[in-house]
Design brief:
about 240 residues; 7-stranded parallel beta sheet; two-stranded parallel ribbon; 8 helices; Rossmann fold; alpha/beta
Length: about 240
Amino acid sequence: MPTSLSREQLRRVDQDAVSQYGMSSLILMENAGRGAAELIHQHYGAADHSRAIIICGPGNNGGDGCVIARHLHNRNWQTTVFVSGELDRLAPDTHANLSILEKMAMDITMANADQVCEKLAASDHTHDVIVDCLLGTGFTGDVRSPTDMLIRQMNHINKRATVAIDLPSGLDCDTGKASNATIRADLTITFVAKKIAFDQPDATNYTGRIEVTDIGAPRELIAKCAAYPRRVGNGH
């Protein structure tokens, strides 16, 4: 298996798993979120008080967060979900997984980043695991306001731990460059393979410990995509 992949190589894994192997993107998201939830539970689960605040963006990274929330809930975690964005801007698979949470009557708040900041600041999160599902591998450049303020608030609050999903929000997947606002995680749970960003010496200041979880894509496909030339910085 490859040691690390670029943004474009990872995108090809997702696209080809769907187009060439007939895998559902919802199944890939389910596998990713369930694997991440299992690792979070292994590292931070407690018999009496397991609590998670899962902060989701509107893209597929947020959809992973919705899956994580469901599986942590099923493991008796007290789980709160914030979705930073508007309902009509959600990626289709994210919308589908959020709908499941709504039918489960879970604790969900849809709000803009300013409002999420206020809610985080107003409560004690000493015992909470903060799960970062804001920005995915497609992020490049600077984090726009008010999401930049939300990331800084997530870093600032007193909490049990911060877990980044796929990579810390604000970190460029290819270059490993931190943006104007970047999550500092204790644990990064990344999918398919490590990102080439993680090879940079300073990346561990943001990723913390890194663990890779499988999403079910065929290993032959991953190996083929790893052989494609790396077009670093080709995000959008």
